[in-house]
Design brief:
The complex is a heterodimer. Chain A is an alpha+beta fold. Chain A is 36% helix and 23% strand. By secondary structure, chain B is an alpha+beta fold. In chain B, strand 9 and strand 10 form a beta hairpin. The chains are: A alpha+beta, B alpha+beta. Bound molecules: fe (ii) ion (FE2).
Amino acid sequence: MYKIDPTRMDLVEEFRANPVGNHSADLQQMLNVVRAEPFPGKYVLICVKPHREWVLGRLSGVRGDPVEILEDRVFTRAEDAEWEVFRRRWKALTGECLD
Amino acid sequence: MIKHKKIVGYTDRISAAPGDTVGFMVSCYDGVTRYRADVVRLISGDLHPEGAGFKETVLDTPAAGDFPGREQKIHAGSHAEIADRTPFSALSSFTLQAMIWPTTPQRGRQALLGAWSEPEQRGYALMIGDDAAPMLVLGDGQGNIETVSTAKPLQERKWCFVGASFDAETRTACVVQVPSVEYPLADSTAEVRRTVATNAPVTVEAPFMIAAVYDGETGGRAIGAHHYNGKIESPRVANRALDRETMTALMQRPIPAGLLPAVVAAWDFSRAIPTVHIEDVSPNRLDGTLVNLPARAMTGHAWTGEEMNWQHAPEQYGAVHFHEDDIHDAGWEVDFELVIPETMKSGVYAARLASGSDEDRIPFFVRPPRGVRTADLALLIPTASYWAYANEHMAIEASDYEAFSGHLTSLNPEDLFLNSHPEFGHSLYDVFTDGSGVCYSSRLRPVLNMRPGVTISWVGLGGNMPWQFNADLHIVDWLEAMGHDYDVITDDDLDAEGLPLIDGYHAVMTGTHPEYYSTRMWDAVEAYLGRGGRLMYMGGNGFYSRVAYSDAVPGAIELRRTEVEFREKSGAPGEYYHSFNGEYGGIWRRIGRPPGGLVGVGMAVEGFDICGYYRRKPGSHDPRAAFIFDGVDDDIIGNFGVVGGGAAGIELDRCDTSLGSPPHTLVLASSEGLSNHYFPTVEDCLVVSSGLGAMDNPQARGDMVFFETPNGGGVFSTSSMSWSGSLSHNNYDNNVSRITDNVLRRFLDPTPL
Ligand SMILES: [Fe+2]
């Protein structure tokens, strides 16, 4: 199975510059793992103001169970939220911190 | 900080003509006791920072005012209720029995059949217990409850005979469990008999129910408790305690003559399948009603696999699949009504409900007076597709939606509300608690993703790709901005009335996602085009799946998914034929009517991250297309827009003779700029290999097309779901708007094409 190579900072930078849309094959392969984060605790966006403000949330995976809402940080660009979630997942998957 | 839904509602009809009365049902939460209601005309729900903005006009109507609010509940879960209580109310000795196929035997107490009052703890019922084993429950309403269980767990998704008897004289209760297949090591056959202390005969006033027990009433309707998940076939009731052999004999059809004095009821679910009625084939005719649309035309215990069509072997389709989370009609009380004034212009409207910190808008559509056209253009609102996606919540339960869409999913207050109110039910894309697929959806409940300004969690990062109703408002906004007159009609009207509804309009325009078509709708559009009509297909993934409406089941549609199509769940083998009308379900392409035959293109590709644009093809320079590109010199069309940044995106159709495209179809433009997150529709993937994504796959594209139809008619297909998101760019002055306007003006001109 594919394993994330934590030294591939080029892919990290590619993602940071363009989190959504077409990606290089290597980044896509990495994202296949990163975005397949399982339940429970899978990150989602929660819309505060349509098209303008979001916070992060975490899903239980069970319908009816509340979605955990992380209100401490409001994102005014959804791309910034993509990057924040990527950082958190990167830490969980590789043990490395990204800033 | 996060807004919470505190007020929601729905209407009793979705489309109304002047003179018709629309009833509004409202429920309030979190201490809301009053609300303000206004009727508004909806123009735009576009909240994109660069979009057209949210536009609505408040109307002065007698329906406006302040109203008291309170919570109205939805009681989900399907069951059968027998109208006549008397034969069951004082059965001193009895037998209850059925074939069952339980899907969640480990999910706690679930009622199979009986006359039991949950509030009074009185009556008798055969149930599945907390130990997943069948048990007989007897209660006298005085606090004396007896349960007799086999103590052997039922096996999930395996047919099993279950029976329970009670002899009042000897006070002997017996429970029988006989699996259709006894697996080695399974040990699930049982016959348990014991004397009980209860004071028989047990009398009960509660109605006899199947797949639930009586839990009181609300608004004149009985509520069920302990809903069962799974199939039930051939439930039977006898008026004495039958031994195991006699129970088996009672399962036969016809009922053996010697058992006729003993039988109280013998329901045959293979009868009246298109309805919600269940027929008792015993001489007593104790017919009943199915509540909340459990699935009918389900394979029974004796289904051989040789026959796929329930109409050819109804005796093999005597099962009903009940679900604890089925819902048909919320049945709320009407809060206020609006008689559509004669002066109310055909259009898209809503009741706007405001309750301080929250508001809801309940859309409805005003059609022209019956038999009258008040414009030359009809905007055909794809309500069947709204019902198909009603209250979808896939991203909350399926962890792969982020990887599938290529971005984080994004939940709205509506999504959070639906998550905490599972009783609001499913869409045709969701999966029941027991893992089975959903095949009916109803509009007789709040449909919270059919709202202006509301986006969908997995389409576009941060909800930046409006879709369905909210995207269709882009078309309404454009028609208003450009000064085009239009009548509004809906799929529900078209299914009910057929060709006469659209005959005579110079042009018919679809919405952005007219995916679901009934045969009656399809036939009407086909006949309209054959008579010189003009169709502007303004979306993608259109004319894709076949649904059925039913006169017998108002407010609902049915879709049986089959082997291939984009879906969350396939139908189970042998269950591909609609119960509403006996038609084969699934995609039109597999029914010999590929969408290309109607609109020149058929479903090719879908992606949910970014949108691309169109580049003109040689066909756009053909003299036949001159009117379309009048004043458009650009080679690239629609590389802008508020839906994903481009006019070619989300779901797109291609021109392909194998998809039914007529030979004279002119390809005007083809999509470019789709990401590798755009994948071909699954029915095109007969062999799976790498290189499927749109960057590497020439089949994974959209084609904008035009072709002439007989008698001077024509079809123009944008073939892209995001097309309409580009209309308002640069104050409606752009090549997408220009092309759309060119086509509409020509199509409205009766001169033959
Ligand atoms: Fe669709």
